[in-house]
Amino acid sequence: MKKKRVIVGLSGGVDSSVAAYLLKEEYEVIGLFMKNWHDESVTISNECPWLEDSNDAMLVAEKLKIPFQTVDLSKEYKERIVDYMFSEYSKGRTPNPDILCNREIKFDVFLQIALSLGADYVATGHYCRKSSFINSMGEFTHQLISGADKNKDQSYFLCQLTQKQLSKILFPIGHLQKTVVRKIALEQELVTAEKKDSQGLCFIGKVSLPDFLQQQLKPKKGNIIEVPCDFSSYVTQQSTSKSLSQLALKISYSETDGKIVGEHQGAHFFTIGQRKGLGVGGNSDPLFVIDTDVKGNTIFVGQGKNHPGLFRHALKINSGDIHWIRPDLKIKEGEKISLEVRIRYRQPLQKATLYQTDECLYVSFAVPQSAIASGQFVAWYQGNELLGSGVIS
């Protein structure tokens, strides 16, 4: 009986290397490396990490005796990820390029290429799992489950996947601990066995974000305003009696709400919750960005990680930005559901209630959350299963 074909996204890292190894026994495996960047008009880094990664991926394929190819997706990556990042930051929003890369590149463009090459599935080295069952209509329903290694769980980065995409994806290492993955790589003498994990943008490498953004978003001097804790406490206390729609709005400040403590090079280079890069010292507690005004080119900061201006009771997702991985569990207008959510990778899950209205979805937290920024993704879970996500308005 002919084996089914799986194309593995070999990134040049240990995780995808072991994923390919584990699949060899059961499937016909082909390694495919994604080249996502070579546009010299926008420099990502002085280094060329993709060259090293591509070479490592090729060496792994040779060791495993599987076919290997490189595919150039740099045009699609620039159009769908980089241009979107510039656009969002210029509006004072905070995009997540890794989530976008998975939705737009790995499991859209790359998946279509794999299918055109006769693949039955694509596979990656993500630390997450997939489960499937047949529903009452006799159709397969696919579930996205957190990785067994809680310290490495990457389900959040896949929060925009669809049922159609999940039907074609395998996650060979999702049931393993990272230590076991490295042990397997060492036993098989894979060149990536002791290679450090990538810290940069999806399949690109380490990026100095301010330097990157300054190539398209020009520096523009503006004031840094420090807002005292007592002012923000007053505003926060006033908000507790407001409606859910009002609670979901971020607190906006004006220059009269505090004092000028410094100068910055562009409000669009900063995000809520940011600590580094402000260049203002002499305080008993570090300063954190609590609000940005891109139009007025002003940054508002507060002292200490417990500054009340950092916290919000709720957030809003516009109707066009709501995504359910499990559409069968989607709540209808006027309904609500208690789940657990996270607004950033590796954040512990937080108890929350989702409320669906005719125009949007509200997420109300049991405990106010810090550093919620527009453009980020919020993902909601039921136990270990990721049910859906949305872009914070």
Describe the secondary-structure layout.
Elements: E1 5-9, H1 14-23, E2 28-35, H2 49-64, E3 68-72, H3 74-90, H4 97-116, E4 121-123, E5 128-134, E6 140-146, H5 163-166, E7 169-170, H6 178-187, H7 209-214, E8 222-226, H8 229-239, H9 244-247, E9 259-264, E10 287-293, E11 298-303, E12 311-318, E13 322-324, E14 336-342, E15 350-356, E16 360-370, E17 377-382, E18 385-391
Parallel strand pairs: 1-2, 1-4, 2-3, 4-7, 8-11
Antiparallel strand pairs: 5-6, 6-18, 8-9, 10-11, 12-16, 13-18, 14-15, 14-17, 15-16, 17-18
Helix pairs in contact: 1-6, 3-4
Largest sheet: 9 strands, antiparallel
Q: Quick one: how many beta strands?
A: 18
CATH arch. level architecture of the largest domain: 3-Layer(aba) Sandwich
Structural class, from helix and strand content?
alpha/beta
User: What spatial form do the alpha-carbon principal axes imply?
Assistant: globular
Considering the protein shown, what is the CATH homologous superfamily of the largest domain?
HUPs
Predict the CATH topology of the largest domain. Rossmann fold
* Gap between N and C termini: 51 Å
What's the gyration radius in Å?
A: 23 Å
Helix percentage range: 10-25%
Provide mean pLDDT, rounded: 91
Low confidence ranges: none
Note the run of SSEs as H and E.
Answer: EHEHEHHEEEHEHHEHHEEEEEEEEEE
Q: Structurally, how many domains make up the residues?
A: 3
CATH class of the largest domain: Alpha Beta
Enumerate how many helices there are, as a single number.
Answer: 9
The percent range for strand residues is 25-35%
